[in-house]
Amino acid sequence: MYELLKELDRGEHTFGEASTRRSLANSPDRAFGKIRQLYPGQELQLDSTPLDALVLTPDGRTERADLALAIDVATRTIASAILRPKAASSVDATELLTKAMRPMQMHPEWEDAMSWARSILPHDMLPADVLAEHAAARPIIDIRGVFVDRGRIYVSEHFVRVLEMQGMNHRIASPRDPTNKPIVERTLKTIGEDFVRWMTGYKGRAIVHRGSHPEAEPLWPLTLIQPLLDEWVVSVYQPRSHSGLSLDVAPAMPVAPNEMYSGLTEFIPGRVRALTRDEWISLQPCDWRRINRYGINFERLIYDNDGARFHELRRSKSPNRQHDGRWEIRYDPGNMMRIWLRDEERQEWIECKWIRAKDAPTPFALDVLRHVVKLIGDKRHEIDAQVVHKLVDIHKRLGAGPPTNPTPQDKDLKPALEAAARGQTRAALRAVDAPAPEEASEPSERQPRNSADVPPVQPLSAVRTTDKW
Question: pTM of the prediction?
Answer without folding.
Answer: 0.70
